[in-house]
Amino acid sequence: MASRLQQIEGDESVLLRVTHSNLKSFSADVRFPLQMSVESVKDKLWRKCGTSVNSMSLELYDDTNTKVAALTDNSRPLGFYSPLQGYRLHVIDLDPSSVTSGGWLEDTSLVEKYTISEEEYSKRDSTFRKFKEKVLSQNPSAVENKLSNNYMEDLCSNIKVGDRCEVDPGAKRGVVKYVGQAESIAPGFWVGIQYDEPLGKHNGIVKGVRYFECPPLHGAMVRPDKVKVGDYPERDPFEEDEI
Fold first, then answer.
1. Closest of 135, 104, 95 to residue 217, by C-alpha
2. In the chain, N or C terminus with fewer CB closer than 10 Å?
3. Alpha carbon separation from 133 to 21, 186, 234 (Å, rounded)
4. pLDDT by residue (tens digit) across 116-155?
């Protein structure tokens, strides 16, 4: 026990790869303080994957995918279980009615979608189609002023995959996962972001095209003028709660 306490005092934090029993595409590198209790670790993971603290079981695996320990004591500090850099922390959701169950967070084909017939859509006044027709009728030259294929390419010169970043508006933090053109969205250059928190709109797939891999609701495609790269570490939600 004494040696484990010495390790907790000597190493302040550890970077673990987090996986989830229900979310097969979910994989995130998360840094945890070794002094953090197992219950606090669960609370932090609840914010990332949606599994409630009371329904969450945690298992620790080493870099050979061998199970090292089950984190069964919520009062213990994480360092008690001797995690090392690169170990995997596996979240098991014990709630059969959990928001993560059923696969609908990953497979959008399982979600019932609202549909409208072409005839009904045409009858509506406040639609984008009617707005577009009005703009073109007032300014026919607007259709010719399309964006070029190299739009904002110069702003991507200092942005590369793997960079930590902050995205405006909202100062959302994450990591750059894609830099380049995205024809399925619009001409010009785009930056694919994996947010640290579920603040995105997708899992890296936009209009049927996969641009990068990331957990559900963590992905976004933004213009490079909205992205600042640099020393933007992942925020600790517990620090924000302190007074």
1. 104
2. C
3. 49, 19, 44
4. 888 888 888 888 888 877 776 776 555 445 678 899 999 9
Q: Are 155 and 167 in contact (CB under 8 A)?
A: no
- Selection from 179, 14, 177 nearest residue 84 by Cα: 14
How many alpha carbons lie under 13 Å from residue 214 in its C-beta half-sphere?
Answer: 31
Look up residue 122 and give its amino acid.
Answer: S
Q: What is the pTM of this model?
A: 0.43
Q: Is the peptide bond between 224 and the residue preceding it cis, with omega within 30 degrees of 0?
A: no
Residue 189, H or E segment: strand 186-195
Name the E strands within 103-169. 164-167
* Spatial separation of the C-alpha atoms in residues 155 and 224, rounded to whole Å: 6
Task: Quick: pLDDT tens for 24-65.
Answer: 777 889 999 999 999 999 999 988 888 889 999 999 999 899
- Cβ-in-10-Å burial (0-12, 13-18, 19+) of 92 comes to middle
Quote the CA–CA distance of 36 and 12 in Å, as a whole number. Answer: 10
Return the residue matching tokens 């750059």: 176
The structure tokens 């993971």 sit at 45
| Helix or strand run (H / E) with residue 66 | none
Q: Which string of DSSP letters, residue by residue, matches 14-47?
A: EEEEEEESS-TT-EEEEEEETTSBHHHHHHHHHH
Which amino acid, residue 212?
Answer: F
Distance CA 90, CA 221 (A): 28
CA dihedral 104, 106, 110, 111 (to 10 degrees): 70
> What CA–CA distance (Å, rounded) separates 19 from 13?
19
